[in-house]
Amino acid sequence: MIISIPSILLSLGVKCLLNWALVLIQRNHICQSFLGVFSISLSVIDTALTLFAATVHLLNDGYILLIGVKFTRFHVCLLVQILGQVYSNLQWPVVVLAGLDHYKSLTRRLESTVTRAKQLVYLFVSGCLWYLSAVFVFLLSDFNPILENVPYNQIQQCWVFHTSQILQVVVLLLLSLGYTTLHARYNKQLPKDQNTDQRTTVYQITHIFLNTWVLFLFFLAVLFLLPVGIPAYLGLNVVWLSFLNSILIALLLCAVCPASQLVQGLAAVPPDSFCEWRIKFILAAENRT
After folding, report:
1. What pLDDT digit, counting tens, does each position of 168-177 carry?
2. Is the pTM for the entire model greater than 0.70?
3. Element counts in the chain: helices (H) and strands (E)
4. Is 273 within 8 Å of 25 (Cβ atoms)?
5. Which among 28, 142, 208, 259 is most buried, taking Cβ atoms within 10 Å?
């Protein structure tokens, strides 16, 4: 797809504002999980890209000199395409690592503070992901940039790739959540009382998640029905990462945590600024007693 540079700058600016707004909303616990630390790194990179692209485009000469290198609007289009590919390649690794991090938290059974060393590990893993994804794009993928054959000062639009990884991730995670819900409903291996508690708990988890994110899911469905698709440079953002955080928590709570542990507060539920998992479980426990 071809998008004008002003439109790219506008969308990047809105993306940065949303990124930092959500980072500030979650500032009290954002460094307590891998997804939180990765969200901060994404916000920094998006901001750097936006400032660079805006500076180059708004200058009358159409270029800037930085550390002895002449950067033009060609580099703006090139950088948008490269980062779009990097963002697309990061989707599945981020999902897998975030899932493993949440799984470790939920199976620890007890609350524990996140130490500075663990935060440094999160930062190191995030840096490795960015580095490995960039290496893959430059050295191992078949990525070929598409640039206009015109003078750099006449470039007013860029070719932008779209992303399909978001649809793949959403479909897989929603199917997994649906499967765990159905499995809890028809599971005959547990005693009747335990099976009833587990089924009720799974329904509560699913209801909490859908009640919070149904509008976002509807928005994603509308976007995917549009013929233009989602530009790759917009595919990875903190709103999307917050959604991933909630759906991964919901999926793991349904799949690995027995109802008895949830109602007794024995599972260390990862922080979530959008779904009130702990409050709902405490209320359910009170109702049963």
Report:
1. 999 999 999 8
2. yes
3. 9, 6
4. yes
5. 259
